[in-house]
Amino acid sequence: MDYQIKTKDKFSYIEEGQGEPLVLLHGLFGALSNFRDLVDHFSQNYKVVVPLLPLFDLDIFNTTVGGLEKYVNKFIETLGYKNIHLLGNSLGGHVGLVHVIKHPENIKSLILTGSSGLFENGMGDSYPKRGDREYIRKKTEVTFYDPAMATEELVDEVFNITNNRLKVIKIIALAKSAIRNNLENELHQINVPTLLIWGKDDIITPPYVAEEFHKLIKNSELYFIDKCGHAPMMEVPGEFNVILDKFLKKVSN
């Protein structure tokens, strides 16, 4: 299904369905397509919202985890959402964590999958030469347990981003910001029910990262999915949706 992109003020987003808002935050190389199965499934019972995060549109000083959190906070204020179930993958999870710590008032639950905020393996020590498509293919494949998930279309998306000098500078700025912005000493402040869904074979934010989040966030539950990498909602959407459905029904009552 193709979704209509709505705009309000400076914000672009999709909004499908009715009910309590389920707000989805994508990661550094993420896009609306990452959440397609999730939107299709949950828009039957929830208002599913996906803001397009301005990863490459903020000025360089605000191209940080904190800058993205301010954007998300203003988006939520502008749209007037309450009782939000906030879900983030990878960098989107990190932004969600910072938001819940700073602005817990409208958040009903938090869902993290492959989130940064404690530790993550980034693109690696050496950034690719512009035009090195094979390097980008290998790095994209690393996101998944099954390398076939790195389709030509997905590799092209990432390749086009990394082939733009300004976008590369902003990717590096965001990656460095995520590493600097370690939340270990702040996670105890989170009181909302929290669900952690993690791929057993995630090598970007490995399973021990999920276990550390589980230990530090007091009201959390953790589920591992076998044969799954860094983006469970893309790689195993059926299993992901079953786990999330059960959690949302529990916290929505």
From TrEMBL:
SUPFAM superfamilies: alpha/beta-Hydrolases
Domain AB hydrolase-1: start-end pairs: 21-137, 182-235
UniProt KW keywords: Hydrolase
InterPro entries recorded: AB_hydrolase_1, AB_hydrolase_fold, AB_hydrolase_sf
Molecular function as annotated in GO: hydrolase activity
The keyword Hydrolase is assigned to this record: yes
Top-level taxon: Bacteria
Protein name: Alpha/beta hydrolase
Organism whose genome encodes this protein: Polluticaenibacter yanchengensis
